[in-house]
Design a protein that fits this description.
Structural class: alpha+beta
Helix content: 10-25%
Radius of gyration: 16 Å
Strand content: 25-35%
Shape: globular
Number of strands: 9
Number of helices: 4
DNA sequence: TCTAAGATGGGT
DNA sequence: CCCATCTTAGAA
């Protein structure tokens, strides 16, 4: 549960630019993602992420170099990469690392915390467990779309905050929907909060392993 | 220039 | 299982 918001600290640029993308994806579990569009404040706790590692990762959009779509991935960390998936869904990513290293973290699920009524309106559903349990769903619930590509995540439209009191129970698993990625298809670069009711997919016991808490 | 397939979700 | 329907890579 959310406690006194005043003790929370907004994540600075260095959170996104220091360390490798896999560590950052893991460290993002438990952080709180905020949006403030149209006078509507909404926030959710990140409970599921995936790391995508630039030119080293066949599943990453930047694997084959720059395009108009993925341009922001080639800049500094701490900016949003929002792209349209299957022509329908707006998927929200957090660019990490510094220039030339086109890494990003896909945020796959959050737990609704603030502005839940706004989220229900945007999603047109009352089922709280179905509001943000998937990358397309959370973008709708939080009001994120491709217009927000390249948004500075240390600004006041979309930002993240730390919650030092949150107890993590992180599980690692293979990433969703990247069967085509050859040698990289089975990398354990999906991270989620093991006891969360708000993740996008159930645990796959054969592959999942608990790596920290 | 054309076509297939994709980091998905909702409905039958 | 099928559909929505944008972007990209790779085939003609």
């Amino acid at each position: 549960m959310l406690k006194d918001i005043r003790q929370y600290v907004k994540l600075p640029r260095t959170f996104f630019t220091k360390g490798n993308v896999v560590e950052i994806a893991e460290n993002l579990i438990g952080k709180i993602l905020y949006t403030a569009f149209d006078q509507q404040l909404a926030a959710g706790r990140i409970v599921e992420t995936e790391a995508y590692c630039g030119s080293n990762d066949q599943a990453c959009h930047a694997f084959r170099g720059g395009t108009a779509r993925n341009e922001v991935m080639f800049g500094d960390g701490g900016y949003a990469y929002v792209y349209l998936c299957y022509g329908v869904h707006h998927l929200f990513n957090i660019v990490t690392n510094t220039k030339k290293n086109a890494d990003a973290v896909l945020v796959r699920a959050v737990e609704p915390l603030i502005g839940i009524d706004f989220m229900k309106q945007r999603r047109n559903t009352e089922n709280q467990q179905n509001l943000t349990s998937g990358p397309g769903k959370l973008s709708v619930a939080l009001g994120i779309n491709t217009k927000h590509n390249k948004t500075d995540l240390t600004g006041d439209l979309i930002w993240l905050m730390d919650d030092p009191s949150f107890e993590r129970n992180i599980v690692a698993d293979r990433r969703v929907g990247v069967d085509y990625a050859g040698r990289d298809a089975n990398l354990p670069w999906r991270f989620f909060q093991g006891n969360s009711l708000f993740v996008s997919k159930p645990v796959q016991p054969s592959l999942a392993k608990n790596i920290s808490n």
